[in-house]
Amino acid sequence: MRRLASPLRQLSILVLAAATACAPLSASPPEAPATPRASPVQGQAMVAAANPLAVEAGLDVLRRGGSAVDAAVAVQAVLGLVEPQSSGLGGGAFMVHYDAETGKVTAYDGRETAPAAATPALFLDADGEPLPFFTALLSGRSTGVPGAVAMLHMAQKDHGRLAWPSLFEGAERLASQGFVVSPRLEGMIDSRAPQAAQPDALAYFTKPDGTKYRAGDVLKNPAYAATLRKIAAEGPDALLEGEIARAIVARVHEGELASAMTLEDLASYEPKKGEALCRPYRVYIVCAPPAPSGGPAVLQGLGILENTPIANHGPADPQGWYLFSQASRLMYADRDRYMGDPDFVDVPTEGLLAKDYLAQRAALIGPAAGPPPQPGAPEGAGVRAPDNTKEPGGTSHFVVVDAEGNVVSMTTTVESLFGSGRMVGGFFLNNQLTDFSFAPETSDGAPAANAVAGGKRPRSSMAPLIVLNQKGEFVAALGSPGGSSILAYNLKALVGVLDWRLSMQDAVALPNLIARGASYMAETDKFAPGVVEGLAERGVTFTAVGGEGSGLHGVMVTPQGLSGGADPRREGVARDLQAAAP
């Protein structure tokens, strides 16, 4: 594998070397584990994703000589079919891509946008009060212009090796011939989520005899197959112009709270790309997409933890989890106040990630938990209203490493389960605009960073990550779904791999702990003996974790080769290039 010293790599190495020289001895980082503690998959190319059918689609592309981005297109096409509750053609995504030849890490932004005519009052009622969340979610107003396909098309033009039309063959075949409904999909079909009870979802998931599809049943989606054929032939224009675009606009205009989306909104959508946001963490460099993704928040969480001795306190030590919880609270306090679309608001990313500011925030961690921390005052921060955003989970993450060492880490979503519950062309439309703050300002007029505006991208917690070493070589990639809890899930897995010397599989399987404001949620039954009691002694008490939960997937480099991890809370797998088709 040829590696060149790109300007980004040279800068990252210099920054990292300086940061490492200043790191306290008590926080000295370990190396990656020489012997993984689980039984990870070993190989030189790998796919880790939330459904085995999607993993196999990606591996098939890799076997045909495709790149990591080629495989990502195939993985997304299948995920949108087999787990439509989480992502799809009608949603958005963030991706980070590592180029093994140049060492460059590129961020791709396929986040949905609000219609040009949208105003800050989008989710206010006639009295100026925020709409009930589920009223807004089920309305046409909840849907943003979808960007995942356009983003993948942009990335594939940059990094693809196979012909674009060939990347949809596996998904089109599954949609036409049918796929086996998984237990997780059955659970979502039967869920209490209001989208599952909407007419489009009921029609799709009900068999001719009037019963719902169950695990083991074969479900066909000829409309999805037809949409894939159009995308294969026409690229993203198949969704953003023409017949399907007209159907999207018509569908979101139905109902009392109709969207202002137009055909021009769809036709004018543009994905973005640029350098990833990379920051040192001990002897590593961690890269993520910039705002409006959750990348800056995760990097801030790491920066706070770098000022603590968390590496000396493993997963069986309550002090390690205590430090994690308090760093999380500080991360969320700043993120909730200051993060939004940087094209519309000033996001103080540099101030939030400045070393002196991170040290100041870490210094607030005392021996016992106190009241919820307030947002700090990083350089460049203006006056912002407290956040009023609700962010349920309905998302998926996957990682692809190809035979040349190129890497894709991608988080993809339709927002809530089954998006808005409305379907077009065999796929669900997103409800991504409910990721905006319903209340655009406080009573004294202070604006919310995440208020609605025409053409604006809503704030996201999605934070696909790639980790490099001091030479700029690939170390690991990971990410998770889970709404606002994504930040905590990703931070946990990074600590597990980089600080606690765990295999990727063990790191993603660690108990989830989400500390935000006055709330502490955790999978208390999964902690080592004594951890919950030790946390209680430090002022941390829990309620049960609710919602969708994590879906962490990742790949890391070990001395034996690639090691993958798939969250045991879902149905995903990590398989290498030599794995036999299921």
Structure in words:
Helix 2 (52-63) packs antiparallel against helix 3 (68-82), helix 13 crosses helix 14 and helix 13 packs across helix 17. The longest helix is centred in the middle third of the chain and has 21 residues, at 318-338. The chain is globular. Strand 2 and strand 3 form a beta hairpin. It contains 19 helices and 20 strands. It has helices spanning 7-21, 52-63, 68-82, 133-137, 148-159, 169-177, 183-189, 199-204, 222-234, 237-240, 242-252, 263-267, 295-305, 318-338, 349-353, 355-362, 486-499, 504-509, 531-537, and strands spanning 46-49, 92-98, 105-110, 179-180, 218-219, 272-275, 277-281, 284-288, 395-401, 407-413, 423-424, 427-428, 465-468, 474-479, 513-516, 519-522, 543-544, 553-558, 561-566, 573-576. Helix content is 32%, strand content 15%. The strands form five sheets. A seven-stranded antiparallel sheet has the order 6-3-2-10-9-1-20, with helices on one face. It has 582 residues and is an alpha+beta fold. It starts with 6 loop residues before the first helix and ends in a 6-residue tail after the last strand.
